[in-house]
């Protein structure tokens, strides 16, 4: 993922969920909880994103047993999450400067 390229909500919440290693079903629950129910991720979306993020070096398979794969963030993944968090904070701060909340 290129630096300063906005990511989708699903990607952002999945990286947030991966700040603690977890398996697929638990990740879907954590995304739903962290987003207050705004982002509900099904298995197709989840495993598509996990595959892409693993290929891009943002996450790695940490453990695998017969039924579950546990994933964790890599240092690159942590950096990408931090950059996106900072980008989102700048957007909110710019909105505050423009007094958007008074509209």
UniProtKB/TrEMBL annotation:
Pfam families: PadR (PF03551)
Cited InterPro entries: Metal_resp_DNA-bind_regulator (IPR052509), Tscrpt_reg_PadR_N (IPR005149), WH-like_DNA-bd_sf (IPR036388), WH_DNA-bd_sf (IPR036390)
Transmembrane segments: none
Domain Transcription regulator PadR N-terminal: 18-82
Highest taxon of the lineage: Bacteria
Stored PANTHER family: PADR-FAMILY TRANSCRIPTIONAL REGULATOR
Protein name from the UniProt record: PadR family transcriptional regulator
